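User: Here's a chain of 231 residues. Predict its fold as tokens.
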Amino acid sequence: MLDSNFWKRYFKVYDVLNLLIPYQELLYAICDELDIKKGEKFLEAGCGTGNLALKIKKRGGAVVGLDNSREALDIYRKKDPEAKLVLADLRGKLPFPDNYFDKIASNNTLYIIPKEKQLDTLKELYRILKPGGKIVMVNLKKGWRSGKIYISGIKKNLKKEGVYSTFLKIIKMIIPTIKVFYYNYFIKKETQYYFCDFNEQKELLERAGFREVSETKLVYANEAILNSAFK
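Assistant: Prediction complete.
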């Protein structure tokens, strides 16, 4: 499994994704699916550098960000000094009581957990979600290609901002993007990581006890799958 030094390097360039329209659309899609109400208590399970959590907070949610990368949480803290952050591993018991959160979001995190432990992780998220609470989960699908995401972003940017603005953005992105592609190569090659087939995430949520699991949606330039469900 890739070590903490790998993720430290990865998170240093991760936020280049904020310049990509497909990534922006992904975060908005998750927030819309969460149906955020002011004051609701949220967990972002695998919050990384806080991009999704900050959007949830902006819409009125009270967010706790959890990640097992101290380096990612340090970057998040610089964006929001008042953020509530927890350093913990989703492969074990989480430091929250039963029925604690109104809603849970998890974006591109489950695949890092070995296949044989993914169901246990979802059962633990079920435990800390309130009855009637909602979970929204997105993960890169099996066979995903980062190139498709970037090409989609360039096409959308050309349509939205024109050639000159897009050219300037590409120049700004080029070095961190090359690094992200480099790191993505190792993520895809890591044998302990597991990317779900189209309906496999849906089935895992059902097996963990969640109800009203949504039909699978393709998001993130059709390279990731989204499901929501209730406890």
